[in-house]
Amino acid sequence: MLQGLSDWWNDVELWLIQLSFPLQFALVMAILLPLCVVLAWFIDRVVDYASARFGTSRDEAPLGSRHTADPDS
């Protein structure tokens, strides 16, 4: 299983390095840019909820949530 994955990855690397630089750059940006944006969004949500949960004020809703805290309830 791992040997097959390793062989596949080596084939992809070999194919990528044989392309011209503008095509390499375009492919890397087309894959890495969306991946980095999604990862940054996920990290932001995790930190937001963790800080809201473990912060000093339990009355405030997390910044990314759609509901607001009602101080009267």
TrEMBL record:
> Which residues are listed as membrane-spanning?
20-43
Q: Which keywords does UniProt give here?
A: Membrane, Transmembrane, Transmembrane helix
UniProt superkingdom? Bacteria
**What is the protein's name according to its record?**
Uncharacterized protein
User: Which species is this UniProt entry from?
Assistant: Actinokineospora iranica
